[in-house]
Amino acid sequence: MIRGSLKHIGLRTASDGDAISVFGSNHIWIDHCSLSRCPDGLIDVIMASTAITIPNRKFNHHNDVMLLGADDGYGEDKIIQATVAFNRFGKGLIQIMPRSRWDFFHVGNYDYSHYQLYAIGGNANSTIIRQDNRFKALYLLKVKLHKFLITDL
């Protein structure tokens, strides 16, 4: 038996492929982890989880890195509040660092220098505070320049 929240008690079952899944929980601190290459996302915070702090982690080689909020139709996620700071986004990352739905989150002190598609995203009325981040989409610039040079020859 595992207790995921005051309202959720059940048997531990198979994961949907996330390295870390926070489901209907609060006051969670995820610190000093190195995550890469999972079948689904590296970290998902869903189902009205709140008071989540995610600092000091390293991410490498993955597509969907971090999701805050289950889906656009689950309005209960509007109570999610998360702080994501001092993490290292390394090589081989594509997108969702993090992506937010409905919630309020603060993301700060990052050097986004290796992403391929997008770094921070939000939809479904999310509020995002970005502070002290540096964005350098070098990979995309090289791809666009390469395509431009080939098509104009």
UniProtKB/TrEMBL annotation:
Cofactor detail note: Binds 1 Ca(2+) ion. Required for its activity.
Keyword Calcium (UniProt): yes
Pathway assigned in UniProt: Glycan metabolism; pectin degradation; 2-dehydro-3-deoxy-D-gluconate from pectin: step 2/5
SMART domains, A to Z: Amb_all
Catalytic activity: Eliminative cleavage of (1->4)-alpha-D-galacturonan to give oligosaccharides with 4-deoxy-alpha-D-galact-4-enuronosyl groups at their non-reducing ends
Domain Pectate lyase: 2-141
Lineage: superkingdom: Eukaryota
Keyword tags: Calcium, Lyase, Metal-binding, Signal
Cofactor annotation: Ca(2+)
GO molecular function: metal ion binding; pectate lyase activity
This enzyme's EC code(s): 4.2.2.2
Gene3D superfamilies for the chain: Single-stranded right-handed beta-helix, Pectin lyase-like
Protein family according to the UniProt entry: Belongs to the polysaccharide lyase 1 family.
Protein name: Pectate lyase
Organism: Fraxinus pennsylvanica
